[in-house]
Amino acid sequence: MTKASHLYCLIFLLLAAPALRAQSPPPDAQAAATDEAVRREANKIILRNNLQAAQMAQQQGDVEKARRLYEDCYSRIAEIGELAVPNEKQQVVSGLVTVLFIQAHRAEDRRDYKRADELYHRILVVDPGNPSALAAQRENKKNLDLHAGSMASQELIEQIPTWHTNEINVATTVQDGKLLYEAGKLDEAEAKLKEALRQDPGNVAAAQYLKLVQERRMADATRRSEDLSGRALVEVEKAWDVEQRTGKYEQRPNPFNRTNLVYTSKGRQAIMSKLDHIRLDSVSYDSLPLGEVINNLSANAKNRDPDKTGINFYISREAASATAAASPYRLFETEVHRP
After folding, report:
1. Which CATH number fits domain 168-249: 1.10.150, 1.25.40, 3.40.1710, 1.10.1060?
2. What is the pTM of this model?
3. 321, 324, 325, 328 alpha-carbon torsion, rounded to 10°
């Protein structure tokens, strides 16, 4: 080969090199393609496993679980590509449509026509033009229009599961309070029962057990008071028993005599005060007229009275003459001035 031929070959290779480099993908693109292929294969494996589990759940009557699995399979088919898994797609669509029909019929049975309409719409998305779904949707639409205004709003209907969950939580809290009450942990039981009443003020069981907690508290307080009084009585009896056996008696205050105050009306207290202060050491009225005796007694009473009001003396007109002669001191009565 001549030098000119070598030169022409070298020029050809130089011109062809960029084209060859353009035909081979870069390393990053190759890695991305490899990852995509691996992901698709993994999705196929998961698809087949979930499809088998969905069919098993459908046979066992667990419609809700079967639907969740069929929906997952349907989403994976969209990622993998329908042409890659045609058999799996046919089985998934058939199974999903079947469980959706079951759920729609159940919704109609409980007169939840709005929910049934949503399920029929989903069937037509998965299997467009399904004649059974179209016919069922039309009939359901008639029922929906017929019962318009006679059903609760969908917002409240959707809250029913939440209400049921709250009822379960309250019932569990009441049972916790009951167990704590029976175990004697009154503080913890009271806290649980009050929490249950806060969540459900009309809960009868919580109110009853809370009342039992309060009654036990009162019974415990009464028992402690009785025990304390009993121990005090025992101590007094022991002290008296020692004195009786030894013959030595000591003067000591009575522990059960808490006070010497007389709780009575103010008028009676004033009378008692006058009786304590108005006292005569000796009395002698020989041969004095009755009027002078009364005047002297009145003057002495007034002088000894802290209020300086004294006592009024009245002659008894009802006394018999014989009685007056036998007992001259009954010829008059006294009246204490009340403030």
Report:
1. 1.25.40
2. 0.41
3. -160
